[in-house]
Amino acid sequence: MESAIDMVTGEIIDAEQLWLIESVDKERYICRGCGAKAVPASFQPENVVRPYFRSTHNADCDVTGEAKLIVRGRQEKLGSKLTGFPAPYPSKLVLVDDRVVDDGGSGGEYPVPPRTRGGPRGRDSGPSDIQRKRSAGTIRPISRTFINYPYDRYLDLNVPGVDAKTYGQVFKKLKWDELVSYTDKKIFYAAMRWSVPLRTDDYLEVSLDGGEREAKKLVRPYRVRVAWGGWSKSKRTYVSNELEVARKDAISEAEKKTNKKAYLFFLGRQDHDDLTLFHVTDHRLICCLFDEIIWPKF
Ligand SMILES: [Zn+2]
Description:
With about 300 residues, this protein is α/β, with parallel strands linked by helices. It is about 15% helix and about 25% strand. The chain folds into two domains: about 5-170, no CATH class; about 175-290. The protein contains five helices and 16 strands. Strand 6, helix 2 and strand 7 (about 135) form a beta-alpha-beta unit. The longest helix has 21 residues, at about 235-255.
């Protein structure tokens, strides 16, 4: 499976985030659905297969059917008023600054996955729905959920600093053919261009497929500048690796004429003087996913 819960922080982590951890603790992760041990695999940067978690799930685990659920979720709405949403999903971004290691003296017993900490209990969501809400420490699992369940974007999503409260409202695609001043804070996204990102000691700059066009030709693209001057080497490698893998996937996929693209997601600030430019300072607030994004016509 592609994500698990970190028992120490209680957050959902995507397997790709393992690239960021210098020495991966194999005892630290559990299945999001049933709490069974989840063992990180293929997480060395040189591994050909992308990172994932291996797990022997309990019989009633709802994550086991998740791959099937994702296939179905791209064709129809999965949630219902009566039963809520059928799988655990991130409903909240929580940025924890200091990771305190606390093993709590639990002697090898794997606890039930922690539920979303604090926060208001949904007025209109049943108890089962509340149990399926999790918090995420980066926008990655959240962006993945946005892609996987296009017909369920009414699901709750709480992101610090963002007023909107559902998946459908928190995410905003950058205009393909226009430079816009975006006044509300959102998780913005757009396909990456194929050009190699610009790298300096102070920042990484990625050019996006959107912005001012003249006769369909992009003349002033939106750009995302990641201020990585103060970052550790491993954080830089993690972000640039992720972009590079997705960029190459997109280039090789183009021949197949599918709708899959390398989408960049970020929570950033638009420059006051230059509408083409967005600033991102935190590695947890940017990610790149190679996939197709479906926009249902309701
Ligand atoms: Zn499980």
